[in-house]
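Key idea: predict the complex, not the pieces.
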Amino acid sequence: MTGISAVLNLQALHQPTDAVLLAAAVQQDHSAFATLVSRYYDLVHRVVWRTTNGHADAADIAQEAFLRLWKNPAQVREAKALKGWLMRVASNLAMDRYRHRPLQDIDDAGEVADSRPNAEQVLTRQWASTTVDLAIGQLPERQRLALSLVHFEQMSNGEAAAIMEISVDAVESLLARARRSLKELLAAEKDNLLASLNHEES
Amino acid sequence: MKTPVKSTTIEMTDDELDKLLALASKPPLATDAHELLLAKITARQSDNPARNVVNFPISTKKAKSIHWLAALPLAASLAAGIWLGAAGQGTDYLFNVSDELASVADSFAASTGIDDAESLMEEDLT
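Result:
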């Protein structure tokens, strides 16, 4: 066990920094860029997916952000800002693309069709997930992005502020409004949702 | 399916909201997403090979300042014309110029020798 952790630590020490990878990417080094993709793609995809409320184009948008980086890596002035740069570009692309999309109503969650036998637990879980997803989808996009970064991706308010190019106070305000709205949107189904959670745990 | 539970009017706590948010769907990620992206990059690079030509930087700021410079003498000329007209000095200057031009024209007419031409022809005929 100690040997494995020592090997992992050694690997971590030998992992190239973003600065090294970015400098190599400027020279059109594919393997360096592939390491950056493996390091950040999943994170960018998750945030875009939540910002677009689970739209299928999330992958396209995440890819577009990386293609822009590959096209001109030098536009990232500081390597330590690379993660923030990718998140900012991707979230801006996502918001531009879905700015005028009509919102779904939370009441549309309805019943979830599932043909599997004895699927009561699965259906309950799907209904609960859909209800929560729709509530998140009803938030204004800036609130949704703040919630995605801070709550789901466990970023600090400062990191989220840097990505969204707003002050920390503004992030806190967005989060507070998002949480207040979610409480109101989910209030009617709160007990059923919590019951589904308890049922799942037992 | 879901079991209906009598809802309460107690406000939802932050802890309860966090529990509900844990129910949100997890973003599905295609297993070959990284490979697809890298393949797209390779395809784009082969479509657009690296250029050997470096574009000159074009400064639009400089071009704008040149336009302003060109307008300056025109504006100065207009201002001078207005000032001369308002002061009544321009008219005197213009009359002097026209008199000068008339006298020059007269001197040109005097030195053409056209008057002398007739007599010379008469001389030739005689």
